[in-house]
Amino acid sequence: MNSHLQKHMGEPPCQCHLCPAAFAYNYELERHVRSHTGERPFSCIQCNASYSQKGALGVHMRRHNGERPYPCLHCKASFVRKCSLTEHIRLHTGERPFSCVHCNASFSHKNSLVKHIRTHTRERPFLCIQCNASFSYKSSLDVHMRSHSGERPYRCLHCKASFLVKDRLDVHMRSHTGERPFSCEQCNASFSRKDSLVRHVRAHTRERRFFCVHCNASFLRKANLEKHIRAHKAERPFSCVHCNASFVTERRLIAHKRTHAGERLFGCVYCGAFFARKGNLTEHIRTHTGERPFSCVHCNASFTRKQQLMNHMSRRHEKKP
């Protein structure tokens, strides 16, 4: 009764000893303190995932069960959580009810507004108790805490890969399914990742934003410029601990290490074949799907591999002196 009256009187009795936050009820305080401590007492019995709130575990279990009880009346989408459906419906209605007091921005999700406001205030309220790191978002703190614990809760059902964040798992799963949701509007190419589409579009526009200071070379991607500069310096900074091999990029080193371990992490969902490198799996899947994502801008030819397209361009379309 006293806590109920205090809520009416604006006197929250439960004060956090780690920050200025205060709450009307003790259970709210306990839940909040877990955002500081990183405690996740609610564990999934089917995988290694754990959560700070019981409700979050319940939502997670629906993903195992395939349960999506909240369908959209405007399209075929359905959702695990009611709040996700509410937010989704705003995509249909165009409603953006959450407005920033610092600028003209408005948002369909309250969380998006809260995150946006921190770009104005520079607030970083989520603190790591094991080091001095601080974060604007709780999700960023959660991911950071896994770097201390070594936890990788998002596991692939098709191979041994595991990830710190769900987004990385989602992208990885496309290497098994062959899904490529990001399509180019100028040709038939499609991609599993948005950043790959952005790089591809630059190839159409010939936008080369990254310039070498040692020569006249320019590149579509910063990573390609960095590799090019190492060629000037003869620099191969990524060395194998098992042999004398060294590499210009870390990705090449990782792929090389799998030849020592005999690891073949990337499995095909169509035939069960396994590959040491993700790129090899991607190329293999195209033999099942018939996909030819590399299209010539001069004729109707298309290819399963980028190198095949480059060879075609040099043989058929390169200007003769």
UniProtKB/TrEMBL annotation:
One of its GO terms (cellular component) is nucleus. The lineage of its organism: Eukaryota, Metazoa, Ecdysozoa, Arthropoda, Chelicerata. May be involved in transcriptional regulation. Belongs to the krueppel C2H2-type zinc-finger protein family. Its main location: nucleus. Residues 14-41, 42-69, 70-97, 98-125, 126-153, 154-181, 182-209, 210-237, 238-265, 266-293, 294-321 form the C2H2-type domain. Keywords: DNA-binding, Metal-binding, Nucleus, Repeat, Transcription, Transcription regulation, Zinc, Zinc-finger. It comes from Rhipicephalus pulchellus (Yellow backed tick). This is Putative zinc finger protein 84. It is found in: Nucleus. Pfam families: zf-C2H2. It comes from the Eukaryota. GO terms for molecular function: DNA-binding transcription activator activity, RNA polymerase II-specific; identical protein binding; RNA polymerase II cis-regulatory region sequence-specific DNA binding; zinc ion binding.
